[in-house]
């Protein structure tokens, strides 16, 4: 509108927060006291500092996958060209889901189980499924952290033990990384039967997997790994037992230390001979690969599992936010940091891979590995060739431990918050419940600490979460956008933030994101490949067990729908209405409502 002749300003009435600081503080304190009616514990906590929440979200999203998966996926799927589908999937798939779950948790202020009676009661089984998945992840993910702890302890000596052959665990086929320590030395490619000292240390000293013949014969518990696992779970317990008061302080270390170490490793990596060729290989775009649908599938899977919607973690963490917290800004900041960290880790990894390829006189394709092989074999082998190898090993494995710990803190917090909000009497005995949960997860993880534990771990890794979580997140998106209603959800966000989510977000929530998840879920079934660990092929009965594990989290959804249907009285129409309409809304104090304040243009 053009200005009038007297230059008067036209007021535009919008919903804004009260500008009175005492009133806002009073409002926030009152928000934390509600939710008794909704199944949440009385006097619900809120984060002591905003940074506690942000670091927790960053710590959850930035995990081991950022270091050991993204760099390999990027280089294997077109290098720099991979960033195109990656960013598209981030904008239209990952970020909207990330924002949606943060906003949902902040408005409803409850965990993954009780939240559904405020959204769509018949989907309450989703919450139980999330808890099952969280327990599976805790069982194998903490074992990987235990491996890192074993490496860390082994690094406190004058020379890292995987630098040389001649140890009790080595075989005659071993060749030593110490041969590469001379900067003028170039080692020719080894015969096919030769194995690096780093590889033998991981397989024969850390895992001792040679004492197992397969998943049917996993052998006894390797107690050194089991003791490391106990140490990990003790740290996890003391980070979680007091709720966000304790975990919010722990993440100040676990979420920030990895960045310090990454920068140190990057500086060291780019000064190594051959590092530039590794970085070029990492970033060199292969534009023709963009025509391959597999590249787009890989980008969608990477962004989804990196940001982690659907695990109930973002819901749980944001449920402790103050009502008027700007979760929109939080979603943009934390998700961007996560993507940047993945990109940064690629430089750290490929600078070292380029160095190793040059020293061994081979190509980067033969050096690069994905997953555990990268962080427990290839990178340690490179570290063994450096002067002061013990120092570099200590900070590297300390980084892996902290990357893993804050993710496992948040994963278990999602389960704990969900259970404590659903059954408040458990929440009043949180310390005992967390202790019992930790003991349960430890005994469940014992199988992964056996000589054949890596076979069990790979089975849980393939079937415990990846397939089921896609289905669960898809149903969560459908329940919120189609049953609860994307407009009603946008109204909720407006009440918190003072502005309504734009049409882009609403279209993503209602259409693009559900399609994104549904396609990923279908493709994960269509392109499922039987698990292979090295040269070991899993027997059919083990694969069948894997699908039972997958189904054990999803089965809660139809079970609850059926039980709810038969327990509800009335006609079919009445039962259906009862199952899809919210039973309650979160209680809010009268003075917490948004105030009408004129904003002048």
From TrEMBL:
PROSITE patterns: NA_NEUROTRAN_SYMP_1 (PS00610), NA_NEUROTRAN_SYMP_3 (PS50267). Keywords: Disulfide bond, Membrane, Metal-binding, Sodium, Symport, Transmembrane, Transmembrane helix, Transport. GO terms for biological process: amino acid transport. It is found in: Membrane. The chain crosses the membrane at residues 53-71, 83-104, 125-153, 221-240, 252-275, 295-317, 337-357, 391-420, 432-453, 465-486, 507-527, 547-567. It is a multi-pass membrane protein. Residues 24-33 have a biased composition (Basic and acidic residues). Na(+) binds at residues 59, 61-62, 66, 306, 338, 403, 406-407. Disulfide bonds join 165-174. Pfam families: SNF (PF00209). One of its GO terms (cellular component) is neuron projection. GO terms for molecular function: metal ion binding; serotonin binding; serotonin:sodium:chloride symporter activity. Residues 1-23 have a biased composition (Polar residues). Residues 1-45, 582-601 are annotated as: Disordered. PANTHER family: SODIUM-DEPENDENT SEROTONIN TRANSPORTER, SODIUM/CHLORIDE DEPENDENT TRANSPORTER. Belongs to the sodium:neurotransmitter symporter (SNF) (TC 2.A.22) family. This is Transporter. It comes from Capitella teleta.
